[in-house]
Design brief:
It contains 13 helices and 17 strands. By secondary structure, the protein is an alpha/beta fold. Strand 1 and strand 2 form a beta hairpin. The longest helix has 15 residues. The protein is elongated.
């Protein structure tokens, strides 16, 4: 597995803050774990950390879980990739200690989080940056150029054949088949859907008249499937199908579109996704330690890829017990560290956090506490 190249010693050093045991956020209903081992700082680490959420984070989470367990033989992380909406629900009702979400908590969700997470509620910490691919299954075609308006028309069902003049005009020299377009969307509440529809609503508002949302518009017809793996499999099995999905799940399996930015077409890449995040702005009115980012989907900088997601770990600012807070801090400290970010990049093709964002994320992790 790719995480091994970062080494057991590096992971142990990052996790030196360690922890003693884990119980659930809010209710603190921990699962038992074997006797703890000794970390580099002499702190025993034991317990099982439970997370629920983003399926886009799946490959990165596999890398993080393996490295964390390797450095701390008495500790483990369980993660269920049930979708960002399920993750946010779990952190709010106390059934998970952290959520993976490709969309930050809404103001209403932040207010609700105070019930389980203390008076300061929960915070959103960026952990994973990745481009969202517009991915298609067109025989003998692996690369297309598309602008926002055309992408919006494809997913609204207004462009129904791949040899449509609007597509052909941007793809001179590409042999486009007389093949039906079959849009495939996520059936679950998805942060990837939230980000993709935010792009469409911002960059093609005359066509995409629905608001950005984690649930696909019910008025639109098409195929649907659950989770990132579900939509990718459906498109892989269906000639003419097209979807939106985290690039880590698409690479090598399907064709992907270059997206028009300004007067140029930008190829999908982790670096171009990171540039788009760099150009984003902090969400106004958020509590201290919350690092939610508002992305600009109408960029003209052709070094940036605008169809991007910033995936967060949503954590409580306050846990019921010190052991819980310590273990959450230990895991999240590793995730946002150089080693953790490189592990994700190696496994999931994600873009590491910038140094400035990484420092802010570490400070947010350090602020997590337990009830007095």
């Amino acid at each position: 597995m790719k995480v091994t190249r970062f080494g057991r010693n590096a992971a142990i050093a990052v996790l030196a803050v360690g922890a003693l045991a884990l119980t659930a956020c809010g209710s603190d209903n921990a699962t038992s774990a074997p006797a703890a081992t000794q970390s580099a700082a002499g702190v025993k680490v034991t317990g099982t950390l439970t997370g629920i959420g983003s399926s886009a984070q799946g490959a990165a989470m596999d890398a993080w879980k393996t490295a964390f367990a390797s450095a701390n033989s008495g500790a483990s992380v369980q993660y269920s990739p049930d979708g960002s909406g399920a993750g946010r629900k779990a952190i709010l009702d106390g059934s998970a200690q952290f959520a993976g979400s490709d969309a930050f908590l809404t103001d209403a969700e932040l207010a609700s989080s105070k019930t389980k997470c203390g008076t300061d509620g929960a915070i959103n910490i960026p952990v994973y940056i990745s481009p969202i691919a517009v991915a298609f299954n067109i025989p003998n075609v692996k690369d297309l150029k598309l602008d926002a308006t055309t992408v919006a028309k494809i997913f609204r069902g207004q462009i129904t054949n791949w040899n449509d003049p609007a597509i052909a005009a941007m793809n001179a020299g590409v042999t486009l088949p007389d093949l039906k377009v079959t849009p495939v969307n996520r059936s679950d509440d998805s942060g990837t859907t939230q980000n993709f529809t935010d792009y469409l609503a911002s960059a093609a508002p005359s066509v995409w008249t629905d608001k950005a949302a984690g649930l696909w518009p019910a008025s639109l017809k098409g195929e649907n499937a659950k989770g990132t793996s579900g939509v990718v499999k459906t498109v892989t099995d269906t000639p003419g199908a097209v979807t939106y999905a985290d690039d880590s799940a698409v690479s090598g399996k399907l064709g992907t579109a270059q997206i028009k930015v300004g007067s140029d077409f930008v190829k999908i890449s982790a670096g171009a996704a990171a540039k788009a995040v760099e150009l984003g702005k902090p969400v106004a009115g958020r509590p201290a330690g919350d690092l939610s980012i508002k992305l600009d989907r109408t960029l003209t900088d052709s070094s940036a890829y605008p169809v991007v997601l910033v995936s967060y770990h949503v954590v409580c600012t306050t846990y019921d017990k010190k052991e819980t807070a310590d273990l959450v801090k230990a895991f999240e400290s590793y995730v946002v560290s150089d080693a953790g970010q490189q592990a994700a990049a190696g496994s999931a093709k994600s873009a590491p956090l910038s140094k400035a964002l990484q420092d802010k994320a570490k400070a947010a992790v350090d602020s997590i506490k337990a009830k007095a």
